């Protein structure tokens, strides 16, 4: 999903969940930007042709433009975005030998990074164009995907003066809800968690 060069990706278990995910994101985007949805451009997938999708379109009053079946060139912009995300995701997984099963986190991190990177076409930052506010704070959070990190324990979890203060993990994304990072911590339950306090070693991965 994108407006101008801003894109939003969300890995789903199956296409049946795509419609509800789209509705939820549109609602979030409308609230964040104070603008109402005017038009959706999509392929002609079955998930966009359901009765529920048609009722939503009629109720909300926006236009839904769909490509001719089997003519992917009409959806070229989305296809290019998907290809760019997939290529970046693969590079991020390989760079620090991140387990392949963490690909959903890699593709979300790839999208987050692209949204904070000046576009090649107009040299503007997609996040700033979309939300009309600075991306400086979010850009300062960026670090190498899959890099080794020591995640700091909250003070309440410290085990005395000489107890554990941090545990190792790798950075696998950004958690906007908590204003922190996501970490994969195979030796510490739960294996995926968030924190806003960590020491990063961006030149190293889990196996270095």
Q: Radius of gyration over alpha carbons?
A: 20 Å
CATH homology superfamily of the largest domain: Ribonuclease H-like superfamily/Ribonuclease H
Please identify, by name, the CATH architecture of the largest domain: 2-Layer Sandwich
Strand order of the largest sheet: 8-7-6-5-9
CATH topology of the largest domain: Nucleotidyltransferase, domain 5
What is the residue-mean pLDDT, rounded to a whole number? Answer: 89
SS summary, helix count: 6
Compressed to H and E, one letter per element, the order equals EEHEHEHHHHEEEEE
**Structural class, from secondary structure content?**
alpha+beta
Q: Overall 3D geometry?
A: elongated
Number of strands: 9
Q: What summary fits the major beta sheet?
A: 5 strands, antiparallel
Distance between the termini: 36 Å
Helix fraction by DSSP (H/I, runs of at least 4): 25-40%
Task: Throw out a few tags for this protein.
single chain; 208 residues; alpha+beta; Nucleotidyltransferase, domain 5; five-stranded antiparallel β-sheet; two-stranded antiparallel ribbon; 6 helices; 9 strands; DNA integration; metal ion binding; metal-binding
Structure report:
It is a single chain. This protein has about 210 residues and is α+β, with helices and mostly antiparallel strands. It has two domains: about 1-135, 2-Layer Sandwich (Nucleotidyltransferase, domain 5), CATH 3.30.420; about 145-200. It is built from six helices and nine strands. It has a five-stranded antiparallel β-sheet with strand order 8-7-6-5-9. It has a two-stranded antiparallel ribbon with strand order 1-2. Strands 3-4 form a two-stranded parallel sheet. Helix 3 (about 75-95) crosses helix 4. The longest helix has 20 residues, at about 75-95. The mean pLDDT is about 90. It holds the Pfam family SH3_retrovirus. This is Retroviral polymerase SH3-like domain-containing protein.
